[in-house]
Structures are given as C-alpha cells and as structure tokens.
Amino acid sequence: MSVAAAPPPALAETAPRRRTQRSFTGLFFTAPFLAVFAFVFVTPVLYALYLSFFRDRLVGGRSFVGVENYVQVFGDAKFWEGAGRVGLFLAVQVPVMLALALVAALAIDSARLYGTGFFRIAIFLPYAVPGVVAVLMWGFMYGDRFGLAGNINDLLGSQVLAPLTPQWILVAIGNIVTWQFVGYNMLIFYSSLKTIPSELYEAAAIDGAGPLRIVRAIKIPALRGAIVIATIFSIIGSMQLFNEPNILRTIVPNVISTFYTPNMYAYNLSFVGQQVTYAATVAIVMGVITGVIAYVVQLRGQREATR
Amino acid sequence: MDARTHRRPRAVLAAVALVATLGLTACSGGDDGGSGGGGGGDASADAVDAALEKGGEITYWTWTPSAEAQVAAFEDAYPNVKVKLVDTAAAADHNLRLQNAITAGSGAPDVAQLEYQSLPQFVLPGSLVDLTEYGFADLEDKYTASTWGSVTIQDGIWGLPQDSGPMALFYNKRVFDENGITVPTTWDEYVEAGRKLHAADPTKYITNDAGGDAGFGTSMIWQAGGRPFQVDGETVTIDLQDEGAQRWADTWNTLVQEELVSEISGWSDEWFAALADGSIASLPIGAWMPGVLESGAAGGSGDWAVAPMPTYDGGEAVTAENGGSAQVVLEQSKNKALAAGFLRWLNSSQDSIDVFLESGGFPATVADLESDDFLNQESEYFGGQQINKVLVDAANSVGKGWQYLPWQAYANSIYSDTVGQSYLNRADINDGLKAWQEQNVTYGQEQGYTVEEG
C-alpha cells in the first residue's frame, strides 16, 4: 500500500526545481483529500484484493490459494443467480424510475403547474425518509394478512394483491426503490433544466416552437449529461441492492434467499459464514462488473453528446 | 443504496461501486487476535476470589431480561467491581456483533451470553477461555447433565449454563375446550386436532411454522429420535435423512401441505397477538416460554396450559432441548480472572439464580429444578397450573446424544434457503432437508472438515 502512495523518485530528481515546488503546492492543497481517499478508498480496495487470494478455514486457518476464489465465483450458481436478479432489476426499474423523474422535472419546469414548490417537495420527500424506515413501512403495507394489501384484497373479495410472494417480490422492491429515488433524480434533472439560458426559449418562441417542440429540441438535449449521471448513479445503486431485500427478508425469510442479491450474498458469506476472503472475491467481481457497465453507459452517453 | 447520494468526479464513478461493495467485507478482516496466555497472574479458584476482591471493570453482553437486576445484586455483593451491561436484544444479531469484535481483535466484552447451539462455533477457533483452570470443574454437580454436556466441548469447560429449554406442548386450553379437542399425546393425534380445529374455525390454527426457524426444526428432529449431526474432532457426519428426521418431516408434511399451520413468523408482533387471542392454539416450544407468554401475550392470561410433548409411538415420554444459553468468558478479555468471578457468581450463586427465576426463567441448576418451592409454584397466567412439574419432567426426559454442527449459526442461516423452500412450495420437507444437508456438506468441506454423509 505504501508503494502506491510513494512518489516516483526518478521523476522528482530530474524535474526542474520550480516545477517541483509547483507540484508540491498542488499536493499540499489536495493532501487532505488524498489522505482520506487513500485511507477509506484505496486501502480497503487493496486489502480486499489481498484477501481474495486467501482462504479462511475453521480447520487450518488462512492459506494462500491464488486465483482459486475467482474460479469458484465464476462457477458459483448462487452468485450468478443474484447477479442476474439485479441485472433484471436494473433493466426494468432504472428506466421506469428515470422516465418518471424526467416527466416530473419537465412538469415542474413547465411553469404551467400550480403549486410547483409543493409538488417538488412532495416528490422529493420520500428521499428524506431513512431507507430502513421506508422499507419497514412498505413491508407493513405489503402484508396480505395484516397490511394494506390484505385490506384491499378483503375489499375486492379476492387475492389479487400478493406483493410478498416469489412472483411479485422483485416488483415490490422495485416499487420501494422507485418511490424513494424518483424525487432525487427529479432534482438532478430540474437543476439541469434551470441552467438553460432563457434566450434559447425566447428564440424558440420567436421561431414559433410549441411547448412539446421546446422539450424535444431544447430541454432533452440539454439534459443529456444529467441523464447519463443519473443513470450511472442508478446502475450503481441497483447493483448494490441490499437494504430493501435484507429488511423484507425478516418478514418473509423463505421468499428472499440469503443470496438474493450479490451484496446480500457477500454480507452473509462474510458475517454469518465466516468466509471473509470469499466474500471479498465476490465483492471485487461484482465491483468490476458494475464498473464495466457504468463505464459502457458513460462512453455511450459521451458519444451521443458529441454526435 | 447510499451511492446514489454521492457526487464525485466521473472518472471515479465506477470505482465508487467497487469500494462501497468492498467496505462491507474489508472491515471484517484482520487478525484472529491473540491466543493463549492468561489474564495475568496464576489462574485458579483463588485467583478468581482475589480478582473479585481487588475489583475492576468488565463488560457483559446479554439479552436476558433479568440481567440488569442480576448485575445490580452483583455490584452490591462486590462493591469494587463495576459491570458494564450491554443489552444486545436478540441472539442472532448478538452473535454477529460478537463475531465481528472477535475478528476485529478488539471491542469484545469480557463476559457474553451464547446459545448452546452457537458454542462450538466460538470454541473451535479459540475465542473463548477454558474455565477449567479457574476451578469450574467443581461446579459440575450443580447443573443438569444435558446443560453441562452442552458447555463441555473437547475436554474443556467453555461456559456456565444459565438456563435450559426442554420442550413441552404449550396449548390454549380455552380454545381446545371450545372446540372439543383433547390434549394430544401422539403426533398423529396432534395432526388430527389440527384438522378438527381448523375445520371448526378457519381463523384458528393448531400452531404456527413459517419454515424459517432452524432451531425449531432441529429440536423437532431431536425429539423424533434423529441425530443428524455427529462431530468427532475434525470429522463431521451429517445425515438429515435418518429415521428420526424422516419421521418428523413426514408428520410435518401433513400439517404444512393441508395448510393446518399458520404462516405467521415466530417473534413477530403478529405472533404475539395471535398467541394472546388464541388463533395460534398451541406451541411445541422450550420451557423458557412461560415468561415470554406472560410479557408478550398478556391477553392470553388464564387460557394457557402446559402438557408433555406428544410422542410418535405413544410410549415413554421423550423431548428435546430448544434454545437455552450459557455465559462465557472471552479470550479477548483483559481481566479473565475477574470475568470468571462474575460468571461464577452469575450462574451458580443462589442470589443471582433467584433473581433469574423471579423473571420467569427456567433454570439449569438441579437444586432449583428439584426444590419444592419451584415445583409447587402455581402460575396465575396458566390458570393456577403447577407448570414447573410438567417442565421439570420434560427436563428429565431429554433425548441423549444430540450434537450441533461446529458451524450451526451458518447452517441455520441457510435453513430458509433449503427447508424453507419446501414450506413455500408445499413440497416434501424431506427434499428440503436433503438440500440443507448438501449445502452443509459443501460448506464443511470448504472449511477443512472431513464430512461424511450418513
């Protein structure tokens, strides 16, 4: 770890004196960030990477196993089941959530909505509810014996609503996440819309563009960067799905397995199964997969922007 | 989902994902902590007495309701000692926190409560102090054979028993009487009673079992004569399809598949409500239940009664332990002699045990189990029944030779992934048990054990 932090000595000697001073000043200003960055970011990653080459056993203790853990992850049905599940979640939930957030942002930006401030705060409010509380609250509403779902079923005299069954649980989780994060993403979009200079709108109005045309020709293109950012945040969030299923699991332990998402799998391996090193491997593989997907989205976003 | 709140330079975005995932595991790494070596000074019963006299401060983690009163009584008796009490609320989280503190190498308490089934998991990696050196072997005669057996593993004494949980059939007498149901003495009669009750009143169930509770499943297999886990040093034999396991699974299949058991999870608010109003009409459960019923389901007062566990053949009474825990001293403790002194007082002095009994606990000490006061006590909650007579009989008829896995906590955590799926799909529980066995065999082998399948 110290190796990575040390400056390359050869470069320091050959560089001219003035330049050295300048880079020292830069370093001085970034030092607080770099120190924290190294401590809470680089070190844990390197440590996890180091751990992933070992195996802990109750009998025999820790031993070096090379890439054996990685080989095991690639053949691990539990891991891939979880990874596939968050992949499906990502493919469905993220577009739905971002579309809703986009519509909401355009609506409050349209200046045609009465009580804009109220709508903005109302849509954003779920984000201010602590995640655990939100899931517990939804868990109660989802209950088909005691909750809102049960009441609606009683009212209709049928069993149409069953959010806590294997068929619907992922949708139920998606609903919670969407409810929580639409407001947050809406704010990203809204703040981006606010930066559009009003001259553009004036010009568009002079050219005779209607509201829909303005949305298509001015607002959406201006939002492109914000959409890419929001998408990447959402992808990372989806890949790390943990709180919602882990808390709902306490209500329906049979419906949500201990490896329901890769993060839950890593958590249970590490804290219940004492397989810290294998959990580190799972985390690294999942981190790389997330990074690749996020990077592809970012590249695509940039290409679109330059086109 | 915290990552969505982060705002970082783009280049870092991908790495954010990586580190947030890693943070989860990295903090649990670290050394196994120091091992060997005493807490300073020579270790003996005299050293314990000296440490108690000298005093100091220790930390105690527990979820026992009477702990606060016990600690207060202890501090009165030994004014030089200060005990910092931490209420860890429930066994599962407690184990997790304890395991993390041990792995981290600091932050573990001096004395902690552990369920009997979790002991091997902490004994084998050397996280606990062998209390033999503090003269604890002299205390053996105080405890029932089954609880003493639970704390002595591999020729060491790793804790002192706090309580025990021999299973009995707790039933709602009012509901049974109203529906003309007699107390079942065999499991066939129990199934029949379940059918009759649910047919007479569809809102009522003979019992609840959501299928996620491994502690219940293993105890029921134990009661049915199954001995699926055998541990001999580093060799573990697993047979979750032995005669007893199948006998239980076959009986329970009928109850689950005919939807005669309620799917309410144990220990939920809903569970306590259902126990209070009688919609869950009976529970085969450990002898510590009276205190839980009194505090959690006060509305059921006067309705409940206790009977011996039904048997499979209608013959001699046999039961199993369900839960129950011991207190242990941790290797991480800086003052082991003092910790041992507190533990000795906590679970073997009459002053402490009296406080424990007052809170409705079920003791592990022979003298208390046999005392007339205890046996003749009439419980108001149970309509004046002398429940301790039934429960002490149960304590004396616990089936012998049961062992837990050295990784029981992990095994229990994947119970719902395997056996739970049988419940969910109303499929054969035997298939779930086979899947559970398979995953445990794999895990055991990965952990370096020689695992044999029976």
Secondary structure layout plus pairing:
The complex is a heterodimer of chains A (307) and B (454).
Chain A: H1 2-5, H2 9-14, H3 17-51, E1 54-57, E2 61-64, H4 68-74, H5 77-109, H6 116-128, H7 131-142, H8 148-156, H9 169-194, H10 198-206, H11 211-239, H12 243-248, H13 262-271, H14 276-306
Antiparallel strand pairs in A: 1-2
Chain B: H1 10-26, H2 45-54, E1 56-62, H3 67-77, E2 81-87, H4 91-104, E3 111-115, H5 119-123, H6 145-151, E4 152-153, E5 156-157, E6 160-161, E7 167-172, H7 173-178, H8 187-200, E8 207-208, H9 214-223, E9 229-232, E10 235-238, H10 243-257, E11 261-262, H11 269-277, E12 282-286, H12 289-296, E13 304-307, E14 325-329, H13 336-348, H14 350-358, H15 366-370, H16 372-376, H17 387-395, H18 408-413, H19 415-424, H20 429-446, E15 450-453
Parallel strand pairs in B: 1-2, 1-3, 8-11, 10-15
Antiparallel strand pairs in B: 3-14, 4-5, 6-14, 7-12, 7-13, 9-10
Pfam families (chain A): BPD_transp_1 (PF00528)
Subcellular location (chain A): Cell membrane
Protein name (chain A): Multiple sugar transport system permease protein
Quick take:
The complex is a heterodimer of chains A (307) and B (454). Chain A is mainly alpha-helical.
Task: Record keyword descriptors for this entry.
heterodimer, A: 307 residues, mainly alpha, 14 helices, 3% strand, B: 454 residues, D-Maltodextrin-Binding Protein, domain 2, 2 domains, five-stranded mixed beta sheet, three-stranded antiparallel beta sheet, disordered N terminus
